[in-house]
Amino acid sequence: MPERLAAGSYANSLVVRHSPTEFVMDWALVTSGGGEIVARVITSPGHIKRVIAALEENVRKYEAQHGPIQVPPAPGGGSGDIEPADEG
Predict the structure, then answer these.
(1) Residue 82, in any domain of the structure
(2) Minimal CA–CA distance to 4: which of 31, 39, 29, 34?
(3) For 31-71, how does the pLDDT look when each residue is reduced to its tens digit (9 = 90+)?
(4) How far apart, in whole angstroms, are the C-alpha atoms of residue 66 and residue 30?
């Protein structure tokens, strides 16, 4: 792994866009002073299904070991920090 990626990037927001051939995920760090995209991941629809399955499996394992994950209310009354992109 390249050293510049080894430390990772912290993100607390995600915007997802898609086309017929790819999914684009923009991970961002949002603070009271604004926000900044810290990573963009582009992948195929088939791979995104495998990613979702891996995340679901790992959440189940995490909750079995640590208990249910508590999801706090979304800021501003929205549905959450993971926002679908506007289509059109």
Answers:
(1) no
(2) 39
(3) 888 889 999 999 999 999 999 999 999 999 999 999 999 98
(4) 27
